[in-house]
Request: fold
Amino acid sequence: MPATTTSPLLQLEQLTSVRPGPQNRPLTVLSAVSCSFRQGELTALIGPSGSGKSSLIRLINRLDDPLQGQILLEGQDIRELAPPLLRQRIGMMLQKAHLFEGTVLDNLQQPFRYRKKPLPGPDDPHITRCLTLARLTPDFLERDARTLSGGEQQRVSLARTLISQPQALLLDEPTSALDRPTTDSLGQTLQELCRSEQLAIILVTHDLRLAERISDQLLYMEQGRIVEIGRTTELFERPQSEGLRSFLSEPETEKT
Amino acid sequence: MSDTNSLIHLDLLQLVYAYALILLSVSLARFRQIGQERQMLWASLRMVVQLLAVGYLLQLIFTVRSPLLVILILLTMTGFSLQIVGSRIKQRMPGFYRIMGSSILIGCGGITFYFCLLVVGYTPWHDPRYLIPLAGMIIGNSMNGASLAAERLAAEMRERHDELETALCLGATARQAAEPALRTAYKAALIPTMNTMAATGIVALPGMMTGQILSGTEPMLAVRYQIAIMCAITAAVAITAFLILLQGYRGYFTPADQLRNTP
Reply:
């Protein structure tokens, strides 16, 4: 566990979020959620389906906005930043990695196109570095991105997110379509990335084994609220709430 | 413009001869019992009545000397085209009628006046004899492009949902994220017009040109008119579709470059 005494990178304060429900009546998705995330710390966000895990991380890079509450990035309200710049600082991998048509290199160049910067070539040190961080080899660069396997596609998506040199990384069930060995290997990559790059990683997952193995902080949600938050090892050993206790004891198959 | 000596008038008797062709087809259908005779008869009667009505209407309109009234007629035509496009499209983008109305008005209206004032250059500028048919051709042809642009945009924004969010996550602005969808929709809007241009003169002789030739215009002059009107139609389709897409994609995003939840 990294000894982090510095102030958190991200502070979420009293976040409440709604979405239109049946007959246009607002449905509460998140209610008064507060928590914080530090650099070099990997947080696993767990809880039953519909508990608001994805909704929560979508607020952090402003894919959605909360009804109430605020999010501070290094003490600054994220609404003060231009959304494209915010999203470069807080990278996000969606559940389904969408790779653009073309080669892996084309995909890695995409963030440069958005910033209207000159495109780096295959030998560019930054490209090579992001590939290496995502545990891909340079021979991938010329391959057609859409013909890669599921695990490889997730790695390309990871490398592409790293191109912008984000401070935080949000991952929405990146392993849900992967088999056990591929999941474990991607999990290990994330853990190493978190340490070496001092990233704040927030991982939404149904995979309890993965959460236990790689995360430092565990956040358990139920019905739009944080029920428990703490060190992963402690919560797995001594869950305080009835909800988390039964969630952890349910057979693995029901959550994947 | 036209040489009236070579113009052959059709009198009532000649029209009756022409209509006899319908009666021949109907009686053939009846005699051989293959059906459709009632439908043929009904459709042909509708055609005759509608055309006579529009003929009287045009004759009436051509006597109009007031620019205001001509403009009013043009606006009514635009309104009808808007209504037709609206009824044809199931999936409408946010702000559909405002966007479609302003785009057709600016795109088609602008081109029509450019064409009438600069290309044909007749006086007075509001002479309904030129303005109304030319505007009709330009609006009528642009309607297709306009509805294709709107329809394609709505479909692309729905189908590309994941791609759009991925682009936003990578730091794209709403405009940058929508770019591929806009390109596809623009292409779809322009294809029919470009196909028509490519086929003109080889596969089909355009109606306006044929009509002018039949009414005594020199073929080369009719061809020049056809070239000019095709340029105008293409530009009208291009500008109208461009305006629809440029205004239309915005409705799918919030000002903070977020995808809006559209039904």
Q: What stands out?
A: Residues 99 and 245 of chain B are 9 Å apart (CA to CA). Residues 1-63 of chain B form one domain. Chain B is about 75% helix and 0% strand.
